[in-house]
C-alpha cells in the first residue's frame, strides 16, 4: 500500500470525527473509491490524469460514466490503457456500478471475491490481464444482476465454481485461456439464459454433461483446447440454435452424430484434432449457413459426402490428416470455397479444375495424398490463389506455365513429386511470390533469370533436382531472400559476386553441385557453414580455406615440378583434394622477379611473376591446380600490368640480368594466420622476408590496400620488424619485410633446452622492448591485433622485434569471426571482447595480449596448456599464486641466475592488470612502459633511454 492510499485511509477514519464539529460535507463515496483505486495503479501514459481530488465530481473524469440523475458512477471503461497494479477493494464503494471493463491491461493479483455483489453490476470484463488465483466461490454467490462475465486471458486456476449456477441471468460467460482444471460443474446446466459459453484453452477434463440439452439458449459453445473426452451426448441435438460449435483439440471420440444436420444455424463447426472416427454424415449437407468446417486431425474414413454440394455458404473446409479417400470431387471447386485443405489423406486420381470455377479460392492444400497425372493448366484460372501446396503426391509432367498468371500467389509448394521439364520462365509473372519450393522432383534446365522479378521472394528451394546452368545474377536483386537451397543439382559456374549484397540471407545451401570460383565476400559468406558449400570442388575463398588464384593477364609461372600436370588456364582451383589432405596451399610455386624494372611515377614497378599454387601432392587427381604453362626460361617479362612492386625506401634494387628469386618450399620460414613467409634475397643481395597473404580473397581494393600498407610502412622503431615494400596484383599480395635473423620468442621460450634459457634481465628487456613497440604503434593509431610470442623475433644481438602488426586492417571489414578464428588463432592471447559482439575492439586488445605475453615470458609457460584431463589457463594460474602471496613461485624455474623479487611481484601484477576482462581496466601501453621503467631497480636500467 503506498503513501497516498494510506493518507486516504486516514482521511476516511478522520471524517466521522470532523463531522461532529461541522455539518457533514456531502461525501462522495464514488470519488473516494476511484481515488483509492487509482492510487494502487501504475499509469504509465497518464490516462487517469483527470482523476484528481481537485475536481470533486468524478462524472467529469475520463473513462467514467455517471447516471444522469443520481450522479453516481455507473460505468468504468479502462481497456487497453497500459495500467498495472492490483484490483483494489475500494471499487466496492461504487455501489451503482453497472459496467466494469479493465480488459487488456496488466492487472495482477487476485479477483475481489465480493465484486459481483455490487447490486447493479451487469458487465464485468477483466480479460487479458495477469490475474491469478482461483475464482472464489463467493464471486458467483449473489450474482443475479450479472449478464456478461469475461475473465479470459488471465492466469486463473482451479475449478469453475458450481456457484455459477446462481447467476441465472448470465448471457455470456468467458473464461477462455486460463489454467482452469477439473470438470465442468453441474451448476452451469441451470444457466438457462446463457447464449455464449467459452471455456476454451484451459485444462478442463471430463465429458460434456448430458444435461447440456437444457441450456437451450446457447448460440455459441467453445470447449476447444482442453482435455475433455467421451462422445458427444445425444441431448445436445436440442441446442438447435447453435451457430458456433467448437470442440477442437480435445480427446473426444466416437462418431460425428447424424443429428448435426439439425443445427441448422451453424456457421462454424470445428471438431478438429480429436479422435472422431467413422464417416462424415450426409446430414452435413443440411447446414446451409455453414461457413467454416474443420474436421482435420481425426480418424474419419470414406469419401467426402456428395451432400456437401448443398453447403452453399461454405468458405473454408479442412479435412487434413484423416483417412479419407477417393477422387477429389469436382463439385468442391463449385462451392465458392476460399480454403480447401485436404492434406494428409489418401485421395488419389487426377485433379481437375474447370476454367470457370474455383475463382474464389485463396488457399489450396492437397499435399500428402496420392494424386497423380499432370498439374492441370487450368490452375491459371484460380486467379485469387495465394497458397498452392501440392507437395508429396505423385504429380508428373511439367510445371504449368499458367502459374505465372496468378498475381496473388505467395506460396507455391510442388516439392516431392515426379515433375520433370524445366522451371517455366513465366513463373516470374507471379509477382507476389514469397516461397517457391520445388525440391525433390526431376526438374532439369536452368534457373530462369526472370526469377529476379519476384521481388518478394524469401525462400527459394530447388534442391534435389537435375538443374543445370548457373545462378542467374538477377538472384542478387531479390533483397528479401532469406533461405536459398540449390543443393544436389548439377549447377555450375561462379557465384554472382553481388550475392553478398543480400541483406536478409539466413541460409544459402549450394552443396553438391559443380560451382567454382570465388565465394562472394561478405559477412554472411565468411561465416557460412562448410556443409552449405561442400561438394563443389572448384569453389575458393576463405570460407572453404582455399585462396583464389588470380586472373592476371598472361601470368608466367615457373614451375619445375609441373611436368606431370595438365596445363589449365582456368582460374578455378581444384581444391577438394587439397582440403582432404589438409595441405592448404602447399607452395612449391614460384615467384620470379623480372629483370627489367620500370619506374612509374617514381615508384619502381617490376614484374613479379605470378605465384601460383599447386598441390604438394603429386596425385594426378589434383590436376586443375596445374599452372598455366611450363616455363623454365629467363623471366624477362616486362609487362607492367602484371603487378606493382613498391619499395618504401625508394631504392631502386640493382637487378642483375636474368636474376630471379624463387619462393619455394625450401625458403619457407613459417606460416601464420595471414600467410606464408619466405626468406629470399633481392637481386641487390639484400635478404628480405616475403609474406604471401593467403587471405587474398578478403583483401580490400587496391586503393584501400595501399592506404593501409603505407600506414604500416611508415612505422620505424628498433623493436618493430619494418615493412619495406609490397607487391600488389588483384590476386596476389606480397609484403616485403626486413629480414630478422634469429628465432621467435616462442621458440626461445618453449622449444629450447633449459640451458639456453633466458636470464631475468633478458626477459625484462624483452618485456620492456615489446611494450615500447606497442606503445609506438598505438601512438600512430595502429592496433597490432595479433600479438603473440611467435610474432616476436629475437634478432642476433638479442633485441626483440615485433612483427605481423596491423594486418587485420587489410580485411574488408574487421570481422570478429575472421579475426578470432583465422588470425588470432593462437589461443590464450585473445582479449575477451573478441567473443562479445557488442564491445568495440580498441588498442586495449593489444594490452591484453601483451599481459599474456608478459606472463608467458616470466613463467616460461604457454598461455594455455593442455594436460591429460585439464586445460590450464596461464593467467588464472598466476592470479591464483599472486592472490596466495606466492607471486615469485610463478617465475620460470629454468631462469638463469638470481632474480630480484621486488621486480618480479610488480611485473606479474602488471601482467594481471593488463589481462583484465574489462578493456577499460587495462592501462594504456604508454603507461605500461612508464610503470615498467619504474619497476626496474636502479642501476639495471639499460633500455629506458630508447
Ligand atoms: C504488461 O507489462 C509487460 C511488461 O511488464 C509489457 O511487456 C506488456 O506490454 C504489458 N501489457 C499490456 C497489455 O500493457
Ligand atoms: C440499481 O438500479 C435500480 C434500477 O435501475 C435503481 O433503482 C437503484 O437505485 C440502483 N441502485 C443503486 C445503488 O444505484
Ligand atoms: C472470450 O474472450 C476472449 C478474450 O477477450 C476473446 O478473444 C473471445 O472471442 C471471447 N469468446 C467469445 C465467445 O466471445
Ligand atoms: C482447423 O483446425 C486446426 C487445428 O485446430 C487448425 O490448425 C487449422 O488452421 C484449422 N483450419 C482452418 C481452415 O482454419
Ligand atoms: C536488378 O534491378 C535493377 C533495378 O531494379 C535493374 O536495373 C537490373 O537490371 C536488375 N538486374 C538484373 C540482373 O536483373
UniProtKB/TrEMBL annotation:
Name the source's superkingdom.
Eukaryota
Where's it found, cell-wise? Cell membrane
The membrane-spanning stretches of this chain are: 583-609
Swiss-Prot/TrEMBL keywords: ATP-binding, Cell membrane, Glycoprotein, Kinase, Leucine-rich repeat, Membrane, Nucleotide-binding, Receptor, Repeat, Serine/threonine-protein kinase, Signal, Transferase, Transmembrane, Transmembrane helix
Residues of the Protein kinase domain = 663-935
Coiled-coil positions: none
Q: Tell me the organism.
A: Asparagus officinalis
Report whether Signal shows up as a keyword of the record.
yes
Broad class of where this protein is predominantly found:
membrane
Q: Which Pfam families match?
A: LRR_1, LRR_8, LRRNT_2, Pkinase
Offer an example of a GO molecular function term for this protein: ATP binding
The EC number(s) given in the record are: 2.7.11.1
This protein's record includes keyword Iron: no
What are the annotated GO cellular component locations? plasma membrane
Protein name per Swiss-Prot or TrEMBL: non-specific serine/threonine protein kinase
The residues that the entry says bind ATP are 692
The stretch of residues making up the signal peptide is 1-21
The membrane topology noted for this protein in its Swiss-Prot or TrEMBL record is: Single-pass type I membrane protein
Amino acid at each position: 500500500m503506498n503513501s497516498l492510499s494510506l493518507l486516504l485511509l486516514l482521511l476516511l477514519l478522520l471524517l466521522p470525527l470532523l463531522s461532529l464539529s461541522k455539518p457533514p460535507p456531502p461525501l462522495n463515496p464514488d470519488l473516494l473509491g476511484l481515488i483509492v483505486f487509482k492510487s494502487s495503479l501504475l499509469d504509465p501514459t497518464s490516462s487517469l490524469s483527470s482523476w484528481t481530488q481537485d475536481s470533486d465530481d468524478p462524472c467529469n473524469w475520463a473513462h467514467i460514466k455517471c447516471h444522469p440523475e443520481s450522479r453516481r458512477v455507473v460505468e468504468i471503461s479502462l481497456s487497453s490503457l497500459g495500467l498495472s497494479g492490483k484490483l483494489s477493494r475500494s471499487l466496492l464503494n461504487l455501489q451503482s456500478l453497472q459496467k466494469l471493463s479493465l480488459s487488456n491491461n496488466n492487472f495482477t493479483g487476485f479477483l475481489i471475491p465480493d465484486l459481483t455483489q455490487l447490486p447493479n453490476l451487469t458487465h464485468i470484463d477483466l480479460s487479458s490481464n495477469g490475474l491469478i488465483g482461483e475464482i472464489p466461490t463467493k464471486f458467483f454467490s449473489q450474482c443475479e444482476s450479472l449478464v456478461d462475465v469475461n475473465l479470459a486471458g488471465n492466469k486463473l486456476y482451479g475449478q469453475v465454481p458450481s456457484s455459477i449456477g446462481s447467476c441465472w441471468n448470465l448471457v455470456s460467460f468467458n473464461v477462455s485461456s486460463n489454467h482452469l482444471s477439473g470438470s465442468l460443474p453441474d451448476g452451469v446446466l441451470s444457466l438457462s439464459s446463457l447464449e455464449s459459453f467459452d471455456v476454451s484453452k484451459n485444462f478442463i477434463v471430463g465429458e460434456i454433461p448430458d444435461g447440456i440439452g437444457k441450456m437451450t439458449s446457447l448460440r455459441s459453445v467453445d470447449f476447444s483446447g482442453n482435455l475433455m473426452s467421451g462422445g458427444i451426448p445425444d441431448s445436445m441435438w436440442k441446442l438447435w440454435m447453435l451457430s458456433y460449435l467448437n470442440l477442437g483439440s480435445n480427446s473426444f471420440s466416437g462418431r460425428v452424430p447424424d443429428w448435426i444436420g439439425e443445427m441448422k444455424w451453424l456457421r462454424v463447426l470445428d471438431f478438429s484434432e480429436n479422435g472422431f472416427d467413422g464417416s462424415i454424415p450426409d446430414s452435413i449437407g443440411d447446414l446451409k449457413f455453414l461457413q467454416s468446417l474443420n474436421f482435420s486431425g481425426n480418424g474419419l474414413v470414406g469419401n467426402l459426402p456428395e451432400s456437401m454440394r448443398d453447403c452453399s455458404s461454405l468458405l473454408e473446409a479442412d479435412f487434413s490428416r484423416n483417412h479419407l479417400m477417393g477422387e477429389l470431387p469436382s463439385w468442391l471447386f463449385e462451392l465458392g470455397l476460399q480454403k480447401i485443405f485436404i492434406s494428409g489423406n489418401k485421395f488419389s486420381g487426377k485433379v481437375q479444375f474447370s476454367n470457370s470455377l474455383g475463382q474464389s479460392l485463396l488457399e489450396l492444400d492437397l499435399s500428402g495424398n496420392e494424386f497423380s497425372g499432370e498439374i492441370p493448366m487450368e490452375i491459371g484460372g484460380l486467379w485469387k490463389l495465394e497458397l498452392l501446396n501440392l507437395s508429396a503426391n505423385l504429380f508428373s509432367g511439367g510445371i504449368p506455365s499458367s502459374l505465372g498468371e496468378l498475381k496473388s500467389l505467395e506460396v507455391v509448394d510442388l516439392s516431392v513429386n515426379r515433375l520433370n521439364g524445366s522451371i517455366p520462365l513465366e513463373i516470374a509473372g507471379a509477382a507476389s511470390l514469397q516461397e517457391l519450393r520445388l525440391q525433390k522432383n526431376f526438374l532439369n534446365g536452368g534457373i530462369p533469370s526472370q526469377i529476379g522479378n519476384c521481388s518478394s521472394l524469401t525462400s527459394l528451394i530447388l534442391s534435389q533436382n537435375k538443374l543445370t546452368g548457373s545462378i542467374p545474377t538477377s538472384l542478387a536483386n531479390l533483397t528479401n531472400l532469406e533461405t536459398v537451397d540449390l543443393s544436389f543439382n548439377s549447377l555450375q559456374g561462379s557465384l554472382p559476386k553481388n550475392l553478398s549484397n543480400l541483406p536478409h540471407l539466413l541460409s544459402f545451401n549450394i552443396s553438391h553441385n559443380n560451382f567454382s570460383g570465388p565465394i562472394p565476400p561478405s559477412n554472411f559468406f565468411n561465416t557460412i557453414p562448410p556443409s552449405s558449400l561442400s561438394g563443389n570442388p572448384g569453389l575458393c575463398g576463405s570460407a572453404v580455406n582455399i585462396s583464389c588464384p588470380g586472373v592476371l593477364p598472361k601470368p608466367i609461372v615457373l614451375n619445375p615440378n609441373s611436368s606431370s600436370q595438365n596445363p589449365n588456364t582456368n582460374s578455378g582451383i581444384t581444391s577438394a583434394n587439397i582440403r582432404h589432405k589438409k595441405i592448404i596451399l602447399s607452395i612449391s610455386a614460384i615467384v620470379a622477379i623480372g629483370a627489367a624494372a620500370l619506374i612509374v611515377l617514381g615508384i619502381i614497378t617490376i614484374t613479379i611473376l605470378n605465384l601460383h599454387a599447386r598441390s604438394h601432392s603429386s596425385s594426378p587427381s589434383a590436376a586443375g591446380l596445374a599452372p598455366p604453362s611450363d616455363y623454365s626460361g629467363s623471366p624477362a617479362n616486362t609487362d607492367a600490368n602484371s603487378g606493382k612492386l613498391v619499395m618504401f625506401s625508394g631504392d631502386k634494387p640493382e637487378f642483375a640480368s636474368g636474376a630471379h628469386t624463387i619462393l619455394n618450399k625450401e625458403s619457407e620460414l613459417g606460416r601464420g594466420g595471414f600467410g606464408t613467409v619466405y626468406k629470399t634475397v633481392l637481386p641487390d643481395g639484400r635478404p628480405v622476408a616475403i609474406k604471401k597473404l593467403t587471405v587474398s580473397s578478403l583483401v580490400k581494393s587496391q586503393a584501400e590496400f595501399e592506404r593501409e600498407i603505407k600506414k604500416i610502412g611508415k612505422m620505424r622503431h628498433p623493436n618493430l620488424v619494418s615493412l619495406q615494400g609490397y607487391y600488389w596484383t588483384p590476386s596476389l599480395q606480397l609484403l616485403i619485410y626486413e629480414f630478422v635473423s634469429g628465432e621467435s620468442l616462442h621458440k626461445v621460450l618453449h622449444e629450447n633446452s633449459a640451458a639456453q634459457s633466458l636470464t631475468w634481465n633478458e626477459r625484462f628487456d624483452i618485456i620492456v622492448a615489446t611494450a615500447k613497440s606497442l606503445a609506438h604503434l598505438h601512438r600512430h593509431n595502429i592496433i597490432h591485433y595479433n600479438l603473440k610470442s611467435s610474432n616476436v623475433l629475437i634478432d642476433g644481438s638479442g633485441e626483440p622485434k615485433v612483427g605481423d602488426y596491423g594486418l587485420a586492417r587489410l580485411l574488408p571489414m574487421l570481422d570478429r569471426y575472421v579475426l578470432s578464428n583465422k588470425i588470432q588463432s593462437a589461443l590464450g592471447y585473445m582479449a575477451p571482447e573478441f567473443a562479445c559482439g557488442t564491445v568495440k575492439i580498441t588498442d586495449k586488445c593489444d594490452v591484453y595480449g601483451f599481459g599474456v605475453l608478459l606472463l608467458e615470458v616470466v613463467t616460461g609457460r604457454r598461455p594455455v596448456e593442455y594436460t591429460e584431463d585439464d586445460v590450464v589457463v596461464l593467467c588464472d594460474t598466476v592470479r591464483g599464486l599472486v592472490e596466495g602471496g606466492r607471486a615469485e613461485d610463478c617465475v620460470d624455474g629454468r631462469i638463469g641466475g638470481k632474480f630480484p623479487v621486488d621486480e618480479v611481484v610488480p611485473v606479474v601484477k602488471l601482467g594481471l592488470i593488463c589481462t583484465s576482462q574489462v578493456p577499460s581496466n587495462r592501462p594504456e601501453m604508454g603507461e605500461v612502459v612508464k610503470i615498467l621503467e619504474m619497476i626496474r631497480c636502479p642501476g639495471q636500467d639499460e633500455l629506458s633511454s630508447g
